[in-house]
Design a protein that fits this description.
Structural class: mainly alpha
Shape: rod-shaped
Number of strands: 3
Distance between the termini: 224 Å
Radius of gyration: 60 Å
Strand order of the largest sheet: 1-2-3
Largest sheet: 3 strands, antiparallel
């Protein structure tokens, strides 16, 4: 009985231990299951927060649409948001997938814990032998119910996570759909703003292009004025012979004429473009004279300056009006098309886009009025500029005739002197031969020739002297005639070159644009300080000079289309042999009559033709003054050269005359022997 009692007590202790161990595991399993559910709830809350943050990124992109500045920027933002949506969906799926894996791993760990307890306690032979069959079945059933409950939680979690994933994806898609639905109004507004800006920028660009035309031709006119001011022959030209100086003068005259024609054309284009030209100025007349000059010299003709090289439009005002009209039509058409399908509450940029078409048109008119105001300011500035350029050009043109005439005098005088010097050198050679023969005859007339035996030699010497005398008279008359003919011919060339040069310069000066052509009478006085401030004071002197010499008596006639009178300028006496010092006849110079059948040559100067006519301007006055001065200088230069040659011939005639007196005396002295 004592052994059984001991066995019963041992068994009771063992069963109590088994119950305590199972109860501990059961409490642990229940607690673990509860903790898993709590962790799941916490993880789901955290995941929901992360998903909400991701969804908010779509909403933020929607809010940032109003900061987009262009349609291109909007397209970029749409593409970025599309990429963001795809990325957010992938992130949501990754979060859900990660949470599913966490739940499965946790459930598997829980099931493994229960399975291990059963394995250690109910399935091993050693441990199972200590448990009763009913205890094992009851305990296993309890653990199985907990396992079923854990699996049920896992299935429920799978389903919840799937639903949460689907819901999140739908929220993202819905947020993106809202974003996408708002892009079209933004696109319409941005397209309107871009079209308006593009049209206005194009108008401003075209306006700047028109302005640049004025700047370009102004710079070109200034360059032409500077070129005329710098016009002068090279130093080598003054040191060359007549042919070289003639070529240099031709280059100088051609350069001056081309510069004057270019200046005339550019000023006419500029004034016509600004609509300030009130006269009918035609540079084609100047071009014809220039081409005739180039044709005479065998040079290629200067082409007409084309207005299209500087201006695309006829006038600045016409260009601005057309530009503003086209811009207005385009902008109004764009505005009407926009507001026809747009309500005021649909406008996304109310700070930049008016609520109705009427206000939009008023803003368009205000902007275009600003462009018109800029054009008016530019036109006013360019009017002051063209007036100053005309005055500078006028002052420069006043100096051109003086430069040309100085070189003309040097050129034609050098040529004439060279021609006369050439004839004189030939005369010196011929007359030198006569002088040498005369010296030989003088030496040959020795006292021994008085011997009757040398009579034949004496007679031969006398005969040779008679022949030399006749030949010497011929040489003197021949070369004297040639010198007069050469001088007469060169004087005719001088007169012709002077008339031709003066005529060309007068034509080019008449084709110029002067201040009277762009200013109505009294306009400077009426406008007062405005023009005087725009034009430097030193230029106002030229404005006064235009009114100074209208009081002189002269033949004048009205000219259609120009504010000047056509004046006939008195011609100076043309250069002739008499004006450079020739007096009398060739017989008077040589002291001997011409041989039978010969006459003294007579020289008549060709008529000078019609007097010079040009507009009564300071430039024409400067031309006439320099022409008269040039004629005076030519007369002085050629008079000196001609006087020197005449003195050379007179000295030769006197020398020969003295010899003719001496020779008979020498013969008489020989006879007295």
């Amino acid at each position: 009985g004592r052994i059984e009692e001991e066995d019963r007590e041992f068994r009771s202790v063992e069963l109590a231990g088994q119950r305590r161990r199972f109860d501990r595991h059961l409490r642990k399993a229940v607690h673990a299951l509860k903790r898993q559910r709590q962790e799941y709830e916490q993880e789901c809350a955290s995941m929901d927060g992360e998903i909400e943050r991701l969804v908010q990124r779509i909403h933020h992109a929607k809010q940032h649409l109003s900061t987009t500045a262009s349609v291109k920027g909007l397209d970029i933002r749409i593409r970025e948001t599309q990429k963001l949506k795809a990325k957010l969906v992938a992130n949501v799926k990754a979060l859900v997938s990660q949470q599913v894996e966490t739940c499965e791993r946790r459930c598997e760990g829980y099931l493994a814990l229960n399975d291990k307890f059963c394995e250690d306690n109910f399935r091993s032979e050693q441990s199972a032998a200590t448990y009763g069959e009913e205890t094992i079945q009851a305990s296993t059933a309890q653990l199985e119910r907990l396992d079923q409950e854990a699996r049920g939680d896992l299935e429920r979690q799978h389903k919840e996570l799937e639903e949460r994933e689907q819901k999140c994806v739908e929220e993202i898609e819905q947020a993106y759909a809202q974003f996408e639905s708002q892009t079209e109004p933004h696109r319409e507004d941005l397209a309107l703003l871009e079209q308006v800006d593009s049209c206005l920028n194009q108008a401003k660009s075209q306006l700047r292009s028109e302005f640049s035309c004025s700047y370009t031709i102004s710079e070109r006119i200034s360059a032409e004025i500077a070129s005329l001011d710098a016009l002068r022959p090279t130093r080598e030209a003054h040191q060359s012979d007549g042919e070289g100086r003639g070529a240099a003068f031709g280059v100088l005259l051609a350069g001056a004429c081309q510069g004057m024609y270019a200046l005339d054309s550019l000023l006419q284009f500029y004034c016509s473009y600004l609509q300030c030209l009130r006269s009918e100025v035609d540079p084609s007349v100047a071009l014809s004279s220039l081409n005739e000059l180039e044709k005479d010299k065998g040079e290629s003709e200067t082409a007409a300056t084309r207005r299209e090289e500087f201006f695309k439009s006829e006038t600045l005002s016409a260009a601005v009006e057309a530009l503003i009209s086209d811009s207005r039509q385009s902008l109004i058409k764009t505005a009407e098309s926009y507001y026809s399908s747009k309500k005021a509450d649909e406008i996304t940029r109310k700070g930049r886009i008016p609520a109705d078409a009427k206000t939009m048109k008023e803003q368009i008119e205000e902007t275009l009025s600003g462009l018109s105001g800029q054009a008016d300011e530019h036109s006013s500035a360019m009017l002051s500029d063209v007036r100053e350029l005309i005055i500078l050009a006028s002052r420069s043109l006043e100096r051109v005739p003086g430069k040309i005439m100085r070189e003309l005098v040097g050129c034609v005088a050098t040529k004439a002197r060279e021609k006369l010097r050439g004839v004189l050198e030939e005369f010196k050679v011929e007359y030198g031969q006569m002088r040498r023969e005369r010296t030989e005859h003088e030496k040959s007339l020795r006292p021994s020739l008085a011997n009757p035996l040398l009579k034949s030699e004496f007679e031969l010497l006398c005969k040779e002297e008679e022949e030399r005398t006749v030949e010497c008279k011929k040489v003197l008359r021949q070369f004297s005639t040639r010198i007069l003919e050469t001088a007469h011919g060169e004087l005719a060339k001088c007169n012709a070159e002077l008339r031709r040069t003066t005529g060309i310069l007068a034509t080019l000066l008449d084709a110029s644009v002067f201040i009277e052509d762009v200013e109505v009478e009294g306009q400077l006085d009426q406008e007062g300080d405005q023009d005087k401030d725009a034009i430097p004071a030193k230029h106002l002197v030229s404005l006064q000079r235009y009114r100074e010499f209208a009081s002189a008596d002269a033949q004048r006639s009205e000219v259609k289309g120009r504010p000047f009178k056509l004046r006939s300028w008195e011609d100076q006496e043309p250069l002739s042999l008499e004006t450079i010092g020739w007096e009398g006849t060739l017989t008077d110079l040589l002291g001997s009559n011409p041989e039978e059948g010969e006459e003294d040559p007579s020289f008549e100067q060709e008529p000078s033709g019609d007097p010079l006519k040009s507009f009564e301007t300071p430039q024409a006055f400067a031309l006439v003054v320099t022409r008269n001065r040039a004629q005076k200088n030519l007369r002085e230069e050629l008079s000196g050269a001609f006087r020197t040659i005449l003195e050379e011939i007179k000295a030769s005639v006197v020398e020969e005359s003295e010899w003719q007196k001496k020779w008979p005396k020498m013969l008489q002295g020989l006879s007295d022997l």
